[in-house]
Amino acid sequence: QVQLVESGGGLVQPGGSLRLSCVASGIISRFNVMGWYRQAPGRQREMVATITKVSIANYADSVKGRFTISRDNAKNTVYLQMNSLEPEDTAVYYCRYSAGDNYWGQGTQVTVSS
After folding, report:
1. Three-class SS of residue 8?
2. Alpha-carbon distance 25 to 95, whole Å?
3. Taking the CB of residue 111, how many other CB atoms lie within 10 A of it?
4. Which of 14, 36, 41, 65 is the most buried (most CB within 10 A)?
5. How far apart (Å, rounded) are the C-alpha atoms in residues 6 and 107?
6. pLDDT at position 27, please?
7. Closest by alpha carbon to 49, among 33, 72, 30?
8. 56-74, pLDDT tens digit by residue?
9. pLDDT of 33
10. Pick from 113, 100, 96: nearest CA to 20
């Protein structure tokens, strides 16, 4: 079992920045992929960014150049630095841990509005 706790969401103006964090605890596999997904009202959950244990990152086209995913393996933590935020980035952001099975965090709300 793996537990994920996200933090760092909030309300920000367009053009602003936020940093999300997700801490994993429990039985952590040596080989895992962690990532951030988001779900806006009335839309399906979509991948934002993923990162392997050796920090190979993958991004959705809509966030390339604005968001940066990183991880600290010693702390079992993954981060999402979000810059140049747009109203279209408004969503609940979920952390996911994958190592055979998938585990999800409870989600953190990000609202981009003036």
Report:
1. coil
2. 13
3. 15
4. 36
5. 6
6. 83
7. 33
8. 999 999 999 999 999 999 9
9. 95
10. 96
